Predict the structure.
Amino acid sequence: MPVTEILLLRHGHRMAWTLDPSTGTYTSTHPFPTGLPADPPLAAHGVDQAEETGVYLSKELSGQAAADRLRIYSSLFYRCLETLRPTVRRLREGEGGAASAPAPAPGLTVRGERGIGEWFGKAWFEQPAPAEPARLRREFFPFLDDRYRSLLVPDRHGERIAEVHDRLAKALSLLVADVDREYVGLGRGGEPVTLLLCGHAAQIICTGRVLTGLVPDDLDEDDFQCYTCGISRFVRREGESSGDRNGNAPPDSDYLEWRTNGGVAGGWDCVLNSGCEHLSNGEERGWHFHGDESFDSYGEAASQGPIVADGSFTSPPKDSHPGQVKL
C-alpha cells in the first residue's frame, strides 16, 4: 500500500491554562487567539522550536512534497497548526535548503483531524473542542484544508487511558486506509507516501503503541517519547498492509485487536523515538502517563458517582476534593 512512513511531531512549548474540575471551567491568564481558554498558542520558546523544526523538516520532506507524495495531518488545536506553519511555508515556497533548489509545493495543505487530537480525562462536563476549520483557515492558517472532514471525533466527556489508545487505533487505521485509497484511486498505488502528523504528548505515546503493537502492562511506562517538537519515525513493515487492494478500511476487529495483531494497518517499526537533534536545546518537556486524569467525581457528578466506561454513573464516592488543576 502507498503509505510507507509516518512521522510524528509534537507541538512546541505552549502557554498554560487552568481547570477548576468542580465547575468544569477552563481559564487562562492570557487571551488566546481563538478565544478558547484550553486552546493556547505557542510560548516564545515554542515559536523558536517550530522555526528550527521547519528548517529541518523542509530539508527532509522537500522531495516528497514536490512529488505530491506527502500528506500532512494535524490536531485542530491552535498550538499544533502554529507548530506546522514554518514547515508548510518552507515546503510551499521551495525553501528546503537542498544542494539543488527544491521545487515548491504551493498546493500543499494540512488536514485537520480531530481523531489525533488532545487527550482530556473523563469528566462529568464536556471537555474542550477546537475551533472550526473554516474559522481557523480564514483567520489564522490559510494552508488548512477546511474541506476535509475528520474521520473520528473524540468523546466530548473525555477518555480513560485505555480508551484513548483505542481511539488512536481506530483513527490511525481509518486515516492510513483513507490515504492508501486516495493514491490507489489516482492510479499511484505503487508510490511510497509519507504522512506527517502533528499532535500532543498523550496522542504520540498512544500512536507509537498502536502502530507497533507494543504496549506495556503498565500504561504509565515511559516507552515512546514525546519531547516538544520531537520527531518520531515509523516505517511500515515490509509486505504488510491493511484493508483490501482498493484501500478500503479494515473491519472494526482489525484495529480493536491492535494489541495482539502487531499494530494497526499491518504494523510498523519505530526507527526514531522523538529525535531532537534539530533543536538547539535538544530534548525538553518530556511527558508520560501518570494514571487517569479523571474529573468525573467532582461537581455535579460528586452526588451521582464517577462516570464509567459506558457513560453511566457508579455509586457516589466517599470523598471528593475539588481543586484547581494547572495543565
About this structure: Helices lie at 44-66, 78-93, 133-139, 161-185, 201-212, 252-256.
